[in-house]
Write a structure and sequence with these properties.
With 247 residues, the protein is an all-alpha fold. Helices cover 68% and strands 0% of the residues. The chain has nine helices and no strands. It has two domains: 2-105; 140-232, Monooxygenase (Up-down Bundle). The radius of gyration is 26 Å and the shape is rod-shaped.
């Protein structure tokens, strides 16, 4: 449709300003509808989706990115059909481009927010884990199901983003996610109550698994060893005894 309008503007220049306004409205409508169905969760109602997933957000970002790429070319095509006096109307394209970029950035922030909520959940599970519990069989220092799930969710996000988004956007989002993970997990680890060497070793196995598996993500700077250092520096001590009941 946009191509048809551009051709119309080129062939019938008396309609150039009218065409310009119509093209602008098309781009505004697309941006508005995309925001409504994704950030406004309208797709849950209109398409019967159970939830808005990372894939939906990535696809929306990809669509916005395409328009962001095309807008300067559309602007230039229409500029050639305008008079010098009419060219001031093109400032609306600059506003639209700004809106699209802000919308795309908001989508990316939404992905980080989703993963932050998951990190908070996994961090609380980590804090609630009894790391000192005695094991009946041989000592097993494999990662906990909680950490395995966190890593799995992160690798799934990376796979989805790598499929639909450019490498630079992938790097930007994943670096924010991994940095946020490290901050939240460090805060939770500092609250963990460990009184045995075995418990410390089990926690260490978790963070080593986190670092090792997420270091294999393509095009993403691996996590540093700050979590491992934090666990290694944990001082083993006795759990405080609960207060005696008052008489």
């Amino acid at each position: 449709m946009v191509i048809d309008y551009i051709q119309c503007s080129a062939n019938i220049q008396i309609l150039a300003t009218d065409v310009l306004h119509r093209v602008i409205e098309i781009f505004k409508l697309f941006n508005s509808r995309t925001c409504q169905v994704i950030l406004g969760a309208g797709a849950i109602r209109s398409a019967g989706l159970k939830s808005i997933t990372a894939k939906h957000i990535a696809l929306a970002s990809q669509s916005l990115g395409l328009v962001i790429t095309l807008l300067p070319y559309v602007r230039e095509c229409l500029r050639q059909t305008l008079t010098t006096h009419q060219e001031k109307l093109l400032i609306e394209f600059d506003r639209i481009l700004k809106d699209y970029r802000e919308h795309q950035s908001e989508l990316h922030n939404n992905l980080v927010t989703i993963m932050a909520e998951r990190a908070q959940f996994h961090g609380k599970t980590m804090q609630a884990t009894d790391w000192d519990v005695k094991q009946a069989g041989p000592k097993d220092f494999s990662p906990t199901p909680n950490m395995e799930l966190l890593v799995k969710e992160t690798k799934t996000l990376h796979k989805v983003l790598g499929r639909y988004l450019s490498i630079d956007i992938l790097q930007s989002i994943m670096s924010q996610v991994l940095r946020m993970y490290s901050q939240k997990l460090m805060a939770q680890i500092q609250e963990v109550d460990i009184t045995t060497a075995q418990g410390k070793q089990r926690l260490l196995a978790d963070v080593q698994y986190f670092i090792e598996r997420l270091s294999t993500l393509d095009h993403v700077e691996p996590p540093n060893n700050s979590l491992e250092v934090l666990v290694n520096n944990i001082t083993i001590g006795a759990k405080p005894r609960p207060p005696l009941p008052s008489r």
